[in-house]
Write a structure and sequence with these properties.
This protein is α/β, with parallel strands linked by helices. It has 15 helices and 27 strands. The protein folds into three domains: about 170 residues, Rossmann fold (3-Layer(aba) Sandwich), CATH 3.40.50; about 220 residues, ANL, N-terminal domain (Rossmann fold, 3-Layer(aba) Sandwich); about 100 residues, GMP Synthetase, Chain A, domain 3 (2-Layer Sandwich), CATH 3.30.300.30.
Length: about 500
């Protein structure tokens, strides 16, 4: 049997509790939970998982809206030596069934409102299912029963054993399982926490889905903190509720994705006192400069960007209050070595754009059941992210765009982000997405869709003219379509595949 590794995530949680002791650490929907309650409940839930046959290395799906039981479940699963397999609740039945069958999950912990979805996806599968709340459907086990036993110790696991299996969004095909180790997540969380130490903020609002890599790494970073952190959790992001919670609890920071910032900017602050707010941490997608500038002006805060992907244990670089530069996503964190490489795999000098490649303990163990895709993505220990960017002379990382989203019009490279940033400078535009459309003359044509600010009106033709005056002739979109809502992924990123599909049906 392997020993409890120094980077075991259950040990990290245990050490955090021993370091800080018992205090009110988490607020959710009208109730405070103490650090002791979370610790004890997770230790008891680990016993429950073992008694229901969950063994070290088994995958346990967590399909929940944000709730304290997500924190408890993650720690319990790691304590039992099993593998956290988080699933964002905005899934279709076929998508969820693929994850259940592909992962070989033996158990699942679900929210009651997702019981019907789960039942349809898991039909015919042998998965022990635990459900939170008071109304437990027939055949399922209540989370209360899961916590009924005596606290369990930590099941030994090695540092490089599998800790989490996260499925990518699948916007370009079937979702792939990304294998992340205890050490990888431990190191990535520590790197993010070290970057955050320049801020004095200890009270934060968590609107991110905890089932996403970004939300997961924020919680792990918190376990590394040398300070007592207080978190207020939203079940799901709600701009009006966000404002109320910040004002009520005098919160100082909040990790968000760019579309959340856009929605907050569209939400009138009213009489809410937001003077306690100091920083936003922005990740999950590239932050348009216009949105960053507006957020800093409206909320009187500093917006700190970070960058990473699921395959890198969620984070590669991040800004801090002592080291931040407009337009950058910060410097690579302590656990990540970054190189910019050309198409031939050669390292490029500062200032030149190429593919962002990263090496270090945070790099995934591989794709679950897919050695061929693993070998294409991780070569000689280097993760090829598929993102285009550059490092400046001082080591700050700048992300330009996704390699697969690059538009080649008449032999010229067009980065969608360049077009989107200009569209977002128009006061009527709230969200913008740019894609390439097949074109007989130019190979690809630059087209875009936008979602307008509430109460605003502008024509697509006027927006074409607006960009034509601000972009090179080969870059500006020849067509801009105004939509009621620009398609987003389940975590708030622009879903460019859905945009392409939508525009193809309008031809």
């Amino acid at each position: 049997m392997s020993a409890v590794g120094d980077h075991h995530l259950a040990l990290l949680a245990e050490q955090a509790y021993e370091r800080h002791g018992d205090y009110e650490s988490l607020f959710f929907e009208g109730r405070w939970l103490t650090s002791r309650e979370i610790h004890d409940r997770s230790a008891r839930a680990a016993t429950g998982l073992r008694s229901h046959g969950v063994r070290p290395g088994d995958r346990v799906v967590v399909l929940m809206t944000n709730a304290p039981e997500v924190f408890i479940s993650y720690r319990a699963i790691w304590r039992a030596g099993a593998v956290v397999t988080p699933v964002i609740f905005l899934q279709s039945v076929p998508e969820l069934r693929h994850i259940l069958t592909d992962s070989g999950a033996v158990a699942a912990i679900i929210s009651p409102e997702l019981a019907d979805l789960f039942a349809a996806a898991a039909e015919g599968l042998s998965i022990t299912t635990f459900v939170t709340g008071y109304s437990v459907p027939k055949g399922l086990v209540s989370f209360e029963d899961l916590e009924a036993g005596e606290p369990a110790g930590i099941e030994p696991r090695a540092d490089d054993d599998l800790a989490a299996l996260l499925y990518t969004g699948g916007t370009t095909g079937r979702a792939k399982g990304v294998m992340l180790s205890h050490r990888g997540l431990w190191e990535a969380g520590r790197g993010l926490e070290l970057a955050s130490r320049t801020s004095a903020a200890t009270r934060s609002l968590l609107p991110l889905p905890l089932s996403h890599a970004y939300g997961l790494i924020v919680t792990i970073a918190g376990l590394h903190s040398q300070r007592r952190l207080v978190s207020v959790l939203q079940r799901w992001f709600d701009p009006a509720g966000w404002l109320e919670l910040v004002a009520e609890h005098r919160l100082e920071s909040s990790p968000v994705v760019p579309t959340m910032l856009q929605m907050l900017l569209a939400q009138p602050p009213g009489d809410h006192d937001l003077s306690s707010l100091q920083t936003f941490g922005s990740g999950g997608a590239t932050l348009p400069p216009a949105i960053r500038s507006a957020a800093e002006k409206v909320f009187g805060v500093t917006v700190l960007q970070g960058y990473g992907c699921t395959e890198s244990s969620a984070v590669i670089s991040a800004e801090s209050l002592s080291e931040h530069r407009p337009g950058s996503v910060g410097k690579p964190l302590a656990h990540a070595e970054v190189e910019i490489r050309d198409a031939a795999g050669l390292s490029l000098p500062a200032g030149e754009d190429g593919e962002i490649c990263v090496r270090g303990p945070g790099v995934m163990l591989g794709y679950w059941n897919d050695p061929e895709q693993t070998s294409r993505t991780v070569r000689d220990g280097w993760l090829h992210t598929g993102d285009i960017g550059h490092l400046d002379e001082d080591g700050y990382l700048f992300v330009v765009d996704r390699l697969k989203d690059l538009i080649i019009r008449g032999g010229f490279n067009v980065f969608p982000r360049d077009v989107e940033d200009v569209l977002l400078e128009h006061p009527a535009v709230q969200v913008a997405a740019c894609v390439g459309r097949p074109d007989a003359e130019n190979g690809e044509e630059v087209v875009a869709v936008v979602q307008l600010q509430p109460g605003q009106q502008v024509s697509g033709a006027a927006l074409v003219e607006f960009t034509r005056e601000r972009l090179a002739r080969y870059k500006y979109p020849r067509e801009v379509t105004v939509l009621d809502a620009v398609p987003l992924t389940s975590v708030g990123k622009i879903n460019r595949k859905a945009v392409r599909d939508l525009l193809s049906t309008r031809e």
